Structures
1.
Amino acid sequence: MKRALITGITGQDGRYLSEFLTGKGYQVFGMIRGQNNPKAKLVTDENPRLELVEGDLRDLGSLIAALEQVQPDEVYNLAAISFVQLSFRQPELTAEITGLGVLRMLEAIRVVGGMENNPIRFYQASSSEMFGKVREVPQTEATPFHPRSPYGVAKVFGHDLTVNYREAYGIHASSGILFNHESPRRGHEFVTRKITSSLARIKLGLQESISLGNLESRRDWGYAGDYVEAMWLMLQQDEPDDYVISTGETHSIREFLDVAFHLAGYDSWEPYVTHDTRFDRPSEVDLLIGSAAKAKEKLGWEPRVNFEGLVKMMYEADLEAEAREASREQ
Ligand code: NAP
Ligand code: G4F
């Protein structure tokens, strides 16, 4: 039975990946931080076969201990401060966790796995945010990076380091340059989930409007459940490499609003959306659209859920959850 260690187990991707790998017959270990993390129960209720181990990306010793305890075949490094807006307010912490955290995990793998024939395969959660002020359209594995946030800069550091440990120490280290991926498990701080959960509350008469920032930026949005399969496929290849994972379609926040409000039976979202400058960013990523041609050719990976399907899945899940919550409160 293969053994996998996932950091960021309580996050959106960690939860999908844990279920995916368990379904493939893996023994899955999720790294959890803090002395009483409230999300521990959620993830073990969701996947009763998941085992938790302690660790924090800020603490090298804890990563070495986790690796020694688990003896994993595969490590998926999903943990990060992942919210771009927060990275502007807490840039040092972002560099510490999202950037230096990758260095610590790679060092732990180098030490525990040994210098030669290191058996541990490593996945780094890189991001399309690294492309930032994009140099070409669509973005591929060869597109130069121009990050536009402390988060993007930290991800470039982690990405380059993953390539370096592959080249310097022969570690089977791969990097997935994933474009935005969403789901009913997406954090409420991200724009898609903020819209679908607020819309569900508007529909149920529990909320009047949504405050948003820049509606013009464009994202290549896919479904997280599809994207975790690509992570696994990367680690099944003989050679480690970097792969763009995306849908190849781009949509603005306005278009997301159009589809979501139409689904909910509204002619227009405009009466329900206000602009709040607090959600504008000091520097923005205006356009993201990826080409996953390499992943299709080498991994045989393609997304299954399209944009409309994704919005519908998220809105319907939020409508059901909000209605359940409202009836519990009555
Ligand atoms: P997420 O929901 O924000 O989850 C982040 C995870 O990181 C949480 O489990 C969090 O644990 C953990 N974490 C934060 N600080 C930590 C620390 N010091 N030590 C250990 N764990 C820590 O993120 P996601 O959407 O699942 O994304 C997974 C990864 O992919 C992230 O690295 C993200 O940057 C990257 N990525 C995401 C997307 C996307 O569109 N979703 C696209 C490209 C790349 P707590 O519960 O303890 O806070
Ligand atoms: O949903 P967002 O916060 O996601 P963003 O910044 O694209 O980052 C996500 O995707 C990255 C991959 O490219 C990941 F690496 C990262 O970890 C994260 O998962 O914002 C999307 C867009 C931005 O242009 C933002 O300015 O939506 C715009 N936006 C407009 N109003 C808003 C809001 N974003 C948020 N979060 N909240 C708003 O009210």
2.
Amino acid sequence: MCGIVGYIGNNQAAPVILDGLARLEYRGYDSAGMAVFDGEKLNIVKAAGRLKILEEMTHGGSALKGCVGIGHTRWATHGIPNEENAHPHFNENETIAVVHNGIIENYIFLRNMLQKKGYQFLSETDTEAVVHLLDYYYKGNPLEAIRKVLHRVEGSYALGVIFAEHPDQLFAVRKDSPLIVGQDENGCYIASDVPAILKYTRKVTYVDNQEIVRLRGDHMHFYSIDEEEIQKESVMIEWDANAAEKGGYEHFMLKEMYEQPKAMADTLLPRIKGQDVVIEELNMTDEELASIRKIYIVACGSAYHAGVTGKYVLEGLSRISVEVDLASEFRYRNPVMEEGAMVIVISQSGETADTLAALRESKKRGFRVLGIVNVVGSSIAREADSVLYTWAGPEIAVATTKAYSTQLMALYLLALKFAKVKKTVTDQEFPGLLEDLKKLPDQIELLLSNKNPIQRFANRYIGAKDIFFIGRGIDYAISLEASLKLKEISYIHSEAYAAGELKHGTISLIEEGTLVSAVVTQPELYAKTISNIVEVKARGAFVLAVTNEGNFEIEKAADYVIYIPETNPYFSNSLAIIPLQLFGYYVAVGKGCDVDKPRNLAKSVTVE
Ligand code: M6R
């Protein structure tokens, strides 16, 4: 979603803003702009398309002089991506400039009201209502105007605001859209995410809902919506800027796939003590855990797919009934929920609007919410009752790989913990399961080292129209994720189907040469899925099978086979997904797609 960067200090603002926006490109955007105060007036430059255009228009920022400014990359919601709709937006006299991430839900009402008062709107955006409303309330005191605006706007927002009459100040405010601030000896910064300012400072402060920050060159003050000054703690960011660089890889996605073994080990090892799983972050006794009979998992996209696998693993190992919901459905379907249940929300960014809303809905109903989250200090991490962090490190590519893998690991750990306290796995079986988990990082490494044949195979499918993924049980969950990975970055139409469901409709789509990828890792379902392979082959499909080492029988049915190392079938997702991630990646690379920043997509979906 949109990215915001702002700076006030001794240095020229425009280069700092451009650099910060470039580091937020992964969030997804389709236009960009900046406003810088040059000592007399606000200069605003905007352009549709890539940030490169803005850089060229301003000669890398050097053409926009001034030490205070705000910048924005816009992911279009209200109005097409063009120059008029790009941010910053400004009032008629161009004395107030605003950048915004989020959605102002009552903007039509505000727009009508302001138009009646004579305000002219130049764009189709919801944001423009904010800047005119600021103008309407501004009587010389910026803080007071912002406070009044916050009382009138509904929806989600992170805002950066400059008033030309107060060029020694920069304002930031948020509700339900991420925003951080930071400071070094050269000035103060605002940004949508840490990588934008990590080059300058590791000490950042998370702005909380409906807080206003007034930044000057050498200090920051925080206020509540009622203008009371508040004290805030800052946090030290542990990872360094290199973690958010490509480090010699062609794409972030490839780098992040290669980081999976470490991310998996980092998520697993601190939570294994001897022969036990210890998850202190749960803050629950074994008795409390043992009393849980129902779990609701709620998430979006790949995190939802991790949840689907989690259902099979949790139900299988701990015999707790699990329901998995898409957050966008859960939040509005008024679900009937069992008393005493636990809600698990899963999110890499910790900012996904629907997942956050599902968390709040669950808490409102009195349920305990556990967040499985990657971004430390994110909204979901802060609002959940307890947080199980996935230690994947910063994930930049829009298509998730390492965060998804660590979400699986977190769910395996939970399943084992529940199994132990509920005694649904015997003391003899438990150490073997732990050993299998510990082997996963090396096994993933092995699969990654064998990428060349997958690249060659993928090259054959860069012209494909449709590709299908099928599997049963956990293999179906793997197929869901493999299909999403392929389609989001290669733009090839793809569907995942429960293998047994094909003959109820989808099989009519199979034509001569259609690629069907069959995931076959669950020994008790081998024969069933092989029957489905035979069915699609009879209709002309070319079948790629991903299966366990030793299942050589499959070669009689499938055309091309990728073997994964031996593990417990509950954990096979973590291995089978690796060649399928590589497949999706190499198809997209072969097609010349913008792998890290696929069209229309955003890394962190902060609007519903
Ligand atoms: O940050 P989250 O994990 O909450 O994001 C959820 C989805 O938006 C995300 O997984 C999305 O589907 C990815 N593009 C998939 O690669």
